[in-house]
Design goal:
The complex is a heterodimer. Chain A is an all-alpha fold. Chain A has one domain (2-221). Helix content of chain A is 84%, strand content 0%. Chain A has helices spanning 2-19, 21-40, 47-50, 52-73, 80-86, 91-121, 128-153, 159-170, 172-186, 190-221. Chain A is globular, with a radius of gyration of 18 Å. Chain B is mostly helical. Chain B has one domain (35-238): Four Helix Bundle (Hemerythrin (Met), subunit A) (Up-down Bundle), CATH 1.20.120. Chain B contains 9 helices and no strands. In chain B, helix 5 (141-161) packs antiparallel against helix 6 (166-196). The radius of gyration of chain B is 24 Å and the shape is globular. Classes of the chains: A mainly alpha, B mainly alpha. Chains A and B meet through helix 8, helix 9 and helix 10 of A and helix 5 and helix 6 of B.
């Protein structure tokens, strides 16, 4: 199963490395969202730096929706999904592989967005251990739920509109948890942030287990 | 709602000679039956009694006055919404396990009623919040997680509405349905935890009326009446959904028979083939 996962993750990341869609379109979109927030919230009033944890994670979620759609769009052409179904790879392995590839892309996006908020919003960083663990746990959760709902929407005519409707309410605990953890790190009270990292980890684990079982039947129908 | 046997068959095209595509005799033909009529009349009587107790005989609240009477509709419909969600998840689990259309249709019918009652809960709750708290909405854990529940149900129903071959649609919908209850619990827990940091959850407790005597009786009567209404709606919606599926199957069989007839096959013999293949 893990060998299959590595194969699929390698394939997806190679496709990304060669097409550079995430780098050339999703990353600029992330930057755009940060600038849009500055237009919406007066940058001189200090709201941006105060609201950074929330804005950061909302931006991550928007980018995640695009990245997940992209991860399944690459298999839409030339009967690639049929090939994947017929390949004999374990569905759980395919799920873990796609999840890992999405997570890897999200981590890079999160680093870019982190640089963006530090440079553009003048946000001070503190509590590095908490920040990194929050990012990893939240990314795992987003990728786990996103891959499951992504395959469900893949191949449907309404996939672009259906995925955010299904995914964003499900990811609301991730948004709450990661934002609170970031706030705790910024306020210099990391003790308050660690329970939220625990919540994020439980979310990620729950969805990984659900996803590993549910992915196969959904892939058959996509 | 009280479609008779003869009405139901005339809505579909007359069956072909072989009769393979007539609605399955094991399923219902109309949506009404003696049982549902008795249940419906009992529910109507219950609603009338509950309305009298809620609006006339029960006293008003010391602090809230007549506004407190909203509780007699607010609490029963939210109970219905929760029961509906549980049945949807149960139906989805059972569908994935047994692969029976019965459970799939149960999950679908229940989710629709849960969606409507959740939306009503929010609307009625907001009408209560305005005179009591002075605002339409507060970011309380219970309100927020009910709003999220509505969105999760809308997502489930959106998946159900996607046109697809019936088996594929049921499988997709049932996986979303299985996740419905866990999602509701996770969202509810995280929202509660989130709001408890802000010390806001007590706002509901301070304004919650003390229920006893006539008020408690009216409320405890209204809840089973609402559940009876839920059962009545569920049975009718279930039968309607079942008939829809039967019509789809029938139309498909009919179309295959027609195409085969066009191609010069003997319609009578091929109909029997299809009947054997699909049964």
């Amino acid at each position: 199963m893990f060998r299959d996962a590595l194969l699929v993750a390698g394939k997806d990341l190679r496709v990304e490395a060669r097409s550079r869609v995430a780098l050339n379109q999703v990353a600029p979109f992330a930057l755009l969202v940060l600038i849009m927030f500055a237009f919406a919230l007066d940058p001189d009033s200090g709201v941006l730096s105060k609201a950074t944890p929330g804005l950061y994670w909302v931006a991550v979620l928007f980018c995640a929706v695009l990245a997940i759609q992209r991860a399944f769009a690459i298999e839409a052409a030339d009967g690639n999904r049929d090939a994947l179904r017929l390949s004999g790879l374990e569905p759980a392995g395919i799920y873990l592989g796609k999840m890992a590839a999405i997570a890897a892309q999200l981590v890079i996006l999160e680093v870019l967005l982190g640089l963006g908020v530090v440079l553009l919003y003048g946000t001070k960083t503190a509590g590095w251990a908490l920040l990194v663990c929050t990012c990893l746990a939240a990314t795992a959760g987003i990728a786990a739920a996103g891959t499951l709902y992504g395959v469900l929407a893949a191949g449907l005519r309404v996939r672009e509109t259906l995925l955010p409707l299904l995914l964003l309410p499900v990811l609301s605990p991730v948004l709450i948890g990661s934002t609170r953890a970031f706030e705790a790190a910024r306020n210099g009270t990391p003790g308050e942030g660690w329970p939220w990292v625990g919540l994020l980890a439980v979310f990620a684990l729950t969805y990984t287990i659900f996803g590993a079982f549910g992915f196969g039947p959904l892939l058959e129908e996509s | 709602m009280t479609t008779q046997r003869s009405d139901a068959t005339t809505t579909t095209a007359p069956p072909p000679a072989g009769g393979a595509a007539t609605p399955d005799a094991s399923g219902p033909i109309g949506t009404g039956s003696r049982g549902t009529r008795i249940l419906g009349l009992a529910t109507l009587a219950g609603i009338a009694l509950a309305a009298y107790l809620a609006l006339v005989s029960s006293p008003d609240d010391e602090n809230m006055g007549d506004v407190v009477r909203i509780i007699y509709i607010h609490v029963p419909i939210v109970v219905v919404a929760y029961v509906g969600c549980m049945i949807t998840t149960l139906g989805s689990v059972m569908y994935l396990w047994k692969k029976s259309r019965w459970w799939d249709v149960t999950a679908a019918a229940s989710a629709e009623i849960a969606m409507v009652t959740t939306a009503l809960t929010l609307v009625v709750g907001m009408c209560w919040a305005r005179p009591t708290w002075g605002v339409w909405w507060v970011w309380d854990a219970r309100l927020t997680s009910t709003a999220m529940l509505l969105l999760l149900l809308l997502g489930y129903l959106a998946v159900r509405r996607i046109p697809a071959e019936s088996g594929a649609r049921s499988k997709r919908a049932s996986i979303v349905g299985v996740l419905l209850l866990p999602n509701v619990i996770i969202v509810n827990r995280s929202v509660t935890w989130w709001r408890s940091l802000h010390q806001d959850t007590t706002i509901l407790n301070t304004l919650q009326p003390k229920i006893h005597g006539d008020m408690a009786f009216a409320l405890y009567l209204a809840i089973p009446v609402a559940l009876m209404m839920f059962a009545w709606l569920l049975v009718h919606r279930w039968r309607l959904a079942w008939l829809e599926e039967e019509v789809l199957d029938h139309d498909l069989d009919q179309a295959i028979t027609d195409r085969r007839a066009e191609a010069g096959f003997d319609a009578r013999s091929t109909t029997v083939d299809i009947g054997e293949a699909t049964s």
